[in-house]
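Late entry, written up from scratch paper. The run itself happened at the end of the previous shift, but nothing got recorded in the book at the time, so transcribing now.
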Amino acid sequence: MSDTNAPSRQELLGRATDLVPLLQKNAPWIEENRRLPDDVVGALTDAGLLKMRVPKHYGGYESPMRTVADVVSELARGDGSTGWTAAVWAISSWMAGMFPDAVQDEVFGEADVRISGILSPTAVGVPTEGGIVLNGKWAFNTGSRQSAWNTNAAVRAHPDGSFEPIMVLIPLSDLAVVDDWHTAGMRGSGSVSTVAQDLFVPDARILSMPPVLAGVHQLGRNAASPVYQAPFMPTACTTVASVALGLARASRDAFFERLPGRKISYTAYENQAEAPITHLTTADAITRIDEAEFHVMRAAGMLDDKAAAGEQWTLEQRAKARLDLGAATQRSKEAVDLLNSASGGSSVYSTVPIQRIQRDVQTLTLHAIMHPATNLELYGRVVCGLEPNTHYI
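Output as recorded:
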C-alpha cells in the first residue's frame, strides 16, 4: 500500500481509446450474456482504468473528474454496458474511500478489487449491539456478480420511529443474487438484484448519508485529497452523464461507418450522403452531441476547480450539476434518435450496432437519477426560490 504517480488525463484516455475496438467486438456477446466477459474486465484492469477513483495510498490514481468523464465516455463509445459498469465501479470505489481507514484497509487490501453500489435505500437496518441487522432487496445492482464489495443505501430504524438514511459496505458474498436482469437495453451491465436477509453489518461499515451527500463527511487518510472534497451527487451525476455522451458518440461512429454506398430506398438518391436531409440530420445530431459534451465537461470542471480551490458548493451549484446530467442525457438521446432514424430499415437487424446503442440510451434516459425532466424540474425549483424536492442534490 503506497502512493502512486497517477497517469495523466491524456494517457488514461489513450488507454481507453485503445480498448474501443475490443469493446465493439465484444458488444454483441456482452448483450447476449448480460455481463462483461473476463477478457474485457481483465483489459480494463490491466489498463489501470478501474483505479481512477481508488485512493492513492492503495495504488489508485484519484483521477480528477475531467479525466474520469473522458475515460468513461470513451469506454461507452465502445460499448454502453461496459461504460456504465466502469462508471458504477468508479463511483463505488470513491464511496468506499469515505469509510474509516481500517475498513478501507480490508476492502482495498485485495489487489484490483471491484466495488459496485446502489443509491436507492430499499433496505432497513435495525440497531443491535455493535451495528445493525439488515433486511432488504436492491434492484439494478450493476456489476455486482463481478464485484467483491457493495456500497448500498439503506435506512436505520430508530426507537422513536424515525429512519436515518445510511450507506453500508457489504461483501457480495453476504448477499443473495437474483438473476432478474432481462431488459431491453444496457443488458450487459448485469444489473441484477441482491438481497440481504438478517445480515449483521458492523458500525464501522455504516455511514450516515446526509454528510456524504453534503460532502462534509469526516475522513481519515483521505481527508486532504481534492477528490474527497466534492459532494456525492455532483460526483455521481457527472460520472454517469459521461456514459450517455459516449453512447451519442457511438451512434455517430456507427452511422458514418455504414453511410458510404448506402442509398435511400424508394427515392432517386443512390447515395444517402448526397441527400440534403442527411446533411441536416447529421449536422443536427453532431450539434446535440457537442451540447451534451458541454454539459458533462462543465460539471466535471466545476468539480475539479472547486475541489482544488477548497470552495463550498451552493445549493444552486448542486442543482446545476443535476441540470447538466439531465441536459447531457437528453441531448445524447436526441442525437442517437436522429441518427438511428436515418439508418434505414436494415438497421433493425441485431448485427447493426446502432439499434443496440438506441436501446441503451433509451434505458439510461429512464433511470430515475438521469431522467431529463426530473433534473430540469429540480433546477427550476431552486432558481425560482423553492426548496429542492429531494435529498439527492
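The radius of gyration is 21 Å.
(Scratch paper discarded after transcription.)
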